[in-house]
Known about the structure:
The protein is α+β, with helices and mostly antiparallel strands.
Amino acid sequence: MENTELIEQLDTYIKNKKANLQVILKNFFDIKYMKINIDKIIIDFQVVLAELMYDISSRYNDLCRVSEENDIVKNYKYELQMLIRQAKAIGDGYAWIFYHKNIEALRAHLKHEDNGLFPIRNGGLGEIEFIKNNKVYEGCYVLYHSITSILRNGDFSLITANGELAGIGEIKTKQVENELIIDAYTTQKMIPSEKVEKIELHDERIGVHLKKQLCLHNDVLNRQKIGIIQEEELRYVYELIEKSVKAENAVVSEDCSMIVYVVDKERKDAETIYDTDIILNNVEEMLPKILNNEFERNEVIQSELTIDSSMWEVPLLWWDFPEAILTKILLRKWLVLTWFNKDFLLDELRKRGFNIQRTKSNTSVYKQVGNKIFGIDDLSLFLKMATVNFVEVKSVILAIENVINKSQMEYEMRNLEEC
Length: 419
């Protein structure tokens, strides 16, 4: 196929899939804000999203298989991968409706590797066919994992009528002649079957309980003591983004630890005012404001608020931003770029009595109590909180202190028990 023909086909394909994704995102917000009768759409939502993701992943695989690797192909592969990431970010928002009461289970999922693209061929077809025909399974609502980036263990979750996680299952597909044989297994049981209040596919309780879960969403956050933290952090994030948009330039956070630059790709003159050299020049002018001669070093990390960012496990689409802003970020109409001075965080940790050890590839923090050392070997996760998830430095430090102090307390408790 000629390059020109391939480009035209892919341009049209990507444009259509972006439009499909925008409709699905609008449906998600209708569910989130209970704008419509959600009983029907909540049942069909994940099937529609899964079918779109299967189609995009299949097209990506075809492109990898039949096209020579060049800059044009690389660009289209990136575009298709980004569509999958955007779709999974919507799936994460959907999954949060059911998992916000099951935070520890969600954290267990996040310890596994992300499964990347959506499954294709018989595996993907079998999984979609299963969720089409088994929206309720073993008396529970079926939540499909492959439409998310956060549910990584197993293929589906079983959610009870009152929003509890009852189990996790796997779907196996094999082809016998021209027929797909699909089997499902519940591999983990959190609630014994006899204690699960069974629901039926058209049971009104599905919609009733979903609405109840949505209404109780903020209460659940507060009970887990992350509601206030999230509210404070989101105000901090939103103000920085808003300032940059209004200024049409880079801005500096109040604590002088970070530069934020929002690129508005929808502007007619975007290609002119957001030229790479112009962006870098604007940032360089601001850079001295986040540097400090008293720091051991001034190591600046460049990053971006990604569409799969989370704040204390809360997915991006549940951040308390206006719908229009979340849409712009998720559909990448706004690119939110950051430059963070890592030494701002490290200097504050030193002031609090912690020791820092740095190598070319790693930074660790620890404190010594007597002849015992308590610490964190790799700070990369906490640095990501500041650079990608926009968690304010004071909250990152608090999280680090909590982890190290917990380690010390557990050690001391073990010693007491042994005595």
